[in-house]
Amino acid sequence: MKNVICLLFILSVSVVSSQNQKINPTKISTIQFNGDEFLGYDPFGYHYSIQNNVFSKINSNENFEYKNVALGRITKVDLQNPLKIVLFYENFNTIVTLDNQLNESQKINFSDSAIPIVATAIGIASQNRLWISNSMNQQLGLYDYLNNHYKTISVPFIEPSKIYASNFNYFYWIDTKNNFYNCDLFGKVTFKGLIPDFDSISIVNESKYIYAKNSILTLKDLEKDKNYVIEISEKSFKNFYYRDQILSIFTNEGITNYKITIP
To answer: Any idea which fold 23-199+238-259 has?
Structure first.
């Protein structure tokens, strides 16, 4: 009898535990969207997109645009600072910074640098610097864009990266073998774990990421070693975007925004 009671208790705990492995975000808005790529929002209510290689900043009243045909395709956009947006044109080894009305404020061609740099990844770091992944030495560095000074900080990468993200203090990447790493401003590289197969992914921080596989969204918490399925109404979607507790689902019909609380 005691064994039966223990078994029932274990099963009840397992059921409760499994029920807790879900996140139910709250739908807050939808917008029409016709661009090629949705890039997200800023704290001021603007959303950003790319259509026909034109970078746009839009709200209900205003629409700003920036294009630079001479530099080819926009490879990456860093929106961490809405007052200093960074566009990366990898084919021309160049970044362009824009102000809050998308006026060009600075253009940096790394091919003109005294130090050999061929950038394959970029991002805004703290203290007027940029994260630079340099394919010349397969290492990560910091570029001071005010003083035109570059410093290599990391050991060489073991495998090339295929996905990357950054904030002011950390650079994150997933390599071609799905290994997840981060690097701090002092060059300390930390292996975070092996990423499961995914269709798209968003790195939240050094211990959490959200990934989509077969239109199922899952939050992975590395510290707790837990997976949380994110319940959304869309049965299929083209991509998703997460930032500051807003989850945006990109479909053929438009963008659906959810408020989500990350455990």
So the answer is: Methylamine Dehydrogenase; Chain H (2.130.10)
